[in-house]
Amino acid sequence: xxxxxxxxxxxxxxxxxxxxxxxxxxxxxxxxxxxxxxxxxxxxxxxxxxxxxxxxxxxxxxxxxxxxxxxxxxxxxxxxxxxxxxxxxxxxxxxxxxxxxxxxxxxxxxxxxxxxxxxxxxxxxxxxxxxxxxxxxxxxxxxxxxxxxxxxxxxxxxxxxxxxxxxxxxxxxxxxxxxxxxxxxxxxxxxxxxxxxxxxxxxxxxxxxxxxxxxxxxxxxxxxxxxxxxxxxxxxxxxxxxxxxxxxxxxxxxxxxxxxxxxxxxxxxxxxxxxxxxxxxxxxxxxxxxxxxxxxxxxxxxxxxxxxxxxxxxxxxxxxxxxxxxxxxxxxxxxxxxxxxxxxxxxxxxxxxxxxxxxxxxxxxxxxxxxxxxxxxxxxxxxxxxxxxxxxxxxxxxxxx
Length: 401
Known about the structure:
Layout: H1 8-29, H2 31-34, H3 36-59, H4 61-70, H5 73-97, E1 98-99, H6 112-128, H7 135-140, H8 145-170, H9 187-217, H10 228-249, E2 259-260, H11 261-266, H12 285-298, H13 308-314, H14 319-329, H15 334-351, H16 360-366, H17 372-383, H18 387-400
Parallel strand pairs: 1-2
Helix pairs in contact: 1-3, 1-10, 3-4, 3-5, 3-10, 5-6, 5-8, 8-9, 9-10, 13-14, 15-16
Pfam family, one: HTH_18
Keywords: DNA-binding, Membrane, Transcription, Transcription regulation, Transmembrane, Transmembrane helix
Protein name: HTH araC/xylS-type domain-containing protein
């Protein structure tokens, strides 16, 4: 006798489980190369495997029967994943944005959802017992489960919003710590996090329709099975989301420049003169001269990947002090400060007769630029003309003098 455990739609969930487990293993193997980014990516993928398994165990007809008979622990383990996936998404998001994004003491608050689930689990265990099967499954079949599911789904979506807000609040501050920002695009990460939020809101919509209809029309007016199409669409969306995460998580994310979150949080506000004077890091005239001399003699701006942390280390200042010095003495942020020197360097290159056979972009790259768009924009802001126009004007200036 043949036992059919999966139907066509179940295969989508099974494929999601397989992909997540496979790439979670790959992430674990690559931990030494990519650090905490791979740790949190692997943990999040593992949680997504359990989320898909949760749906399979609850709604896959033949598979549900098999799990009840042979592996009832699956219900408790997979239900826990619904509470922990949000914190793991947030931790992974931080690891993409920041270096040294490990688990800190203040991150213990992220375990709060798991603590809530532990309270629920032991409550269900003592109330239902195990004589009639998994206590978690018994509770999920009860009439009072809707409020619990609403709280759980809102928590999941809430952590997604938190992760999205983390990205949005990070982007405006990039110019405080990076000298080149064009290659620091987090659009892919925002799309993935937004997709996570959308799928969790879709689940809330599904449950809200079910609850509302039964409240208005009377208990039993609609069954969850009547809304199978909504759930199936969510399963396909989940596979699409995971596919995007695998492509970008193992490709783009590992090659991105990063700074520590502490540095980004402590650097001075980009609005010059803003904030309380008592909160600004003090500096001396000697330190101003030290920075100026180093910029002119060592030309660190030629490094296209120069970060605030790097320059601070080179001039023996803290990132916070250096940022404050640049903001107040040079009336600009770090990005603008470095690119002033780069523009000046390009001007010298363009005026040098020995370099006339080199293209403008080659000279820009020698000066530390890695984006033609950014270079042209900043050059025109500084000079009022394009680099090509400037190069043609320079010989005329020499003749006039």
